[in-house]
């Protein structure tokens, strides 16, 4: 932790709970705070982006000291990372013997997301209220819609569904589903609840396909589904909660500082991605929308554990060719682009995933897209043939967007990848793997098995397997092995 941030976080130097922006102790990097009352005095622990704080009894290891006997040496650790939506994700990791109480629910040995206004209590000790200083951008339906003031924020409501308590705290909203926080009351942990509203029978078939695929998957690098429930027109999927954001946002956290992810970290992440894809491909399942936004970070911190998520477009029996092109244009392989514009052509899902993995590796190492250069936008031009049938409302596309997509498709079809010598001259083996995964002809493209045998991976396979075993396999949480 940065020295200045540590001084602001310790109990003896805690600052007032509410700071003016002109106060010299206030930093633009402070994105949240935990407010408590200690010995009759209101205190705030200030939380900086990517600068975790620890709460506990151990004066050497903790940022904020609590001397009560019910408190463990390191009781919990609080993190803040950027949210994909532009705000902040605040999370708490319980490291104690007796857990923490989050909004009246006990949490043990796991991560939990802290929303604005949430409370966490150390049993028989202090209670902290989480206050987000950075807010999610307000999305208005109309430019004349007023922005609701903070004091009119909706009160949190709860709904019981089986062994889960579903909250109204929203993690994300898409065209087809809404994701809310929920509590697994059996395993004492938070989960994500993806609620999908179906109106027609064919929609139910599509959702049922996703559920059937997910229920059969159990791998540390696959976002796991724990349970599914039907509630009227809604199908609720209870999924493993990830608290570190997504890979796109994580890569951006480097590029915003004018830096790049180091080759060692990119290799560790890529190794996990290949292991997850190997598991899928061995079951003849292709993801078909693999991209950094759909690769989640299980928890905050460097060298993160990653999980492949969002299987709405996944396809079983993916060794078979299909006319049904879907996914995101900037991550489609050449044969997918051609099949998109020429309806008599087909493509195969398994080699398409390998191409997308190659694009993702290039992005991690260079901070840019191999074909979609000239734009810093998050992945756009998402294709889903059934979107119109499911009520998705695409706004009018500008001529600039159309021209950009035409140029992007042309670059992908030509298949030429540029490697800046300044960046890539020291990463010859990584460059070789990128080129093998981005082969224009899918018959000559590297498979996932080929990628795992590549010189870039194989040269450090013992180190990668050891890190994987120590950081992931030995730290699985109770709900993951249930």
TrEMBL record:
Residues 165-457 form the Protein kinase domain. The keyword ATP-binding applies. ATP binds at residue 194. Keywords: ATP-binding, Kinase, Nucleotide-binding, Serine/threonine-protein kinase, Transferase. Residues 53-107 form the FHA domain. SMART domains: FHA (SM00240), S_TKc (SM00220). It comes from the Eukaryota. InterPro entries: FHA_dom, Kinase-like_dom_sf, Prot_kinase_dom, Protein_kinase_ATP_BS, Ser/Thr_kinase_AS, SMAD_FHA_dom_sf. Pfam families: FHA, Pkinase. One of its GO terms (molecular function) is protein serine/threonine kinase activity. Belongs to the protein kinase superfamily. CAMK Ser/Thr protein kinase family. CHEK2 subfamily. PANTHER family: SERINE/THREONINE-PROTEIN KINASE (PTHR24347). This is Kinase-like protein. It comes from Marasmius oreades (fairy-ring Marasmius).
């Amino acid at each position: 932790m940065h020295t200045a941030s540590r001084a602001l976080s310790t109990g003896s130097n805690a600052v007032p709970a509410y700071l003016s922006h002109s106060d010299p102790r206030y930093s633009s990097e402070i994105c949240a705070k935990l407010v408590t009352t200690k010995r009759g005095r209101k205190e705030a622990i200030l939380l900086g982006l990517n600068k975790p704080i620890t709460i506990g009894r151990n004066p050497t290891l903790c940022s904020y000291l609590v001397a009560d006997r019910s408190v463990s040496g390191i009781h919990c650790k609080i993190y803040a990372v950027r949210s994909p939506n532009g705000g902040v994700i605040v999370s708490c990791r319980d490291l104690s013997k007796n857990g923490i109480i989050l909004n009246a629910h006990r949490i043990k040995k796991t991560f939990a997301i802290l929303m604005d206004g949430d409370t966490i209590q150390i049993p028989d000790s202090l209670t902290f209220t989480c206050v987000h200083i950075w807010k999610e951008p307000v999305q208005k339906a109309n430019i004349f819609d007023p922005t609701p003031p903070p004091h009119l924020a909706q009160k949190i409501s709860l709904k019981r569904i089986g062994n889960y308590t579903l909250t109204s705290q929203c993690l994300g909203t898409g065209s087809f589903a809404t994701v809310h926080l929920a509590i697994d009351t059996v395993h004492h942990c938070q989960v994500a609840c993806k609620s999908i509203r179906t109106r027609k029978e064919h929609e139910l078939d599509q959702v049922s396909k996703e559920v059937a695929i997910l229920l059969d998957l159990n791998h540390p690098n696959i976002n796991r589904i724990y349970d599914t429930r039907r509630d009227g027109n809604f199908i609720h999927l209870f999924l493993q909660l990830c608290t570190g954001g997504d890979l796109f946002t994580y890569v951006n956290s480097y590029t915003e500082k004018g830096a790049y992810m180091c080759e060692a970290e990119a290799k560790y992440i890529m190794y996990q991605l290949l292991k997850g894809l190997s598991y899928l491909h061995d079951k003849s399942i292709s993801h078909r929308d693999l991209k950094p936004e759909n690769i989640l970070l299980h928890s905050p911190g460097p060298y993160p554990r990653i999980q492949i998520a969002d299987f709405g477009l996944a396809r079983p029996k993916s060794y078979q060719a299909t006319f049904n092109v879907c996914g995101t244009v900037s991550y489609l392989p050449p044969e997918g682009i051609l099949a998109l514009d020429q309806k008599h052509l087909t493509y195969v899902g398994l080699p398409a995933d390998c191409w997308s993995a190659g694009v993702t590796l290039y992005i991690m190492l260079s901070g840019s897209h191999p074909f979609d250069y000239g734009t810093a936008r998050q992945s756009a031009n998402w294709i889903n043939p059934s979107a119109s049938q499911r009520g998705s409302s695409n706004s009018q596309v500008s001529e600039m967007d159309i021209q950009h997509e035409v140029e992007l498709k042309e670059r992908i079809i030509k298949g030429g990848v540029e490697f800046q010598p300044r960046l890539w001259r020291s990463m010859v083996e990584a460059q070789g793997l990128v080129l093998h995964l981005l082969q224009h002809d899918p018959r000559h493209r590297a498979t996932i098995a080929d990628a795992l045998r590549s010189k870039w991976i194989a040269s450090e396979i013992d180190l990668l397997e050891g890190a994987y075993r120590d950081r992931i396999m030995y730290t699985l949480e109770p709900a993951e092995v249930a």
